[in-house]
Amino acid sequence: MPVNQSRSDCPISCALDIWGDKWSLLIIRDIMFFKKRSYSDFLNSGEGIATNILASRLQTLEENGLIQKSGHPENKVKVLYKLSQKGIDLMPVFIEVYLWAEKYFEMPKEIKTKLKDLKKDKETFIRSMKKDLLKNLV
Fold first, then answer.
1. Region 11-135: CATH code
2. Which residue has the higher pLDDT, 43 or 114?
3. pLDDT over 90 for what percent of the chain?
């Protein structure tokens, strides 16, 4: 959906217009939690996104200020993606989705371990994760 075009004045609807489809959420997840940064990294994610959908979602996320792209330091043709402050600010939303999903779905062992750490001190966990992501902004 183009920048600043929303279906209604409802804040949830406006947010979902930008990042509410599954592919956008998975791209944000991959950057946020799995340190994926390149087009090929996203293509190789387990969900199997099509190239045209990936290109479209990356463009939409960039146009709406959730991600930023920069040149690859070793390859002039490649582009790297990172979360903007606006994207990083989605961290608590993703954490709550993970906690909700843990109640209702089977989780891989490594994610269960992370969630166990998270539940010990959610605020510190989120602050630490955000701090790591903010390092990429400079």
1. 1.10.10.10
2. 43
3. 64
Find, among 5, 2, 23, the residue nearest to 13 by Cα: 5
49 DSSP assignment: -
Token pair in block for residue 113: 């371990």
**Span 3-22, pLDDT tens digits:** 556 678 898 888 888 888 89
Query: Which residues lie below 8 Å from residue 83, measured CB to CB, with a gap of 6+?
Result: 28, 31, 32, 66, 67, 68, 90, 133, 136
- Put residue 78 in one of left, alpha, beta given phi > 0 → left and psi -120 to 50 → alpha: beta
Long-range contacts of 47-50, Cβ-Cβ distance < 8 Å, separation of 24 or more: 47/22, 47/23, 49/23
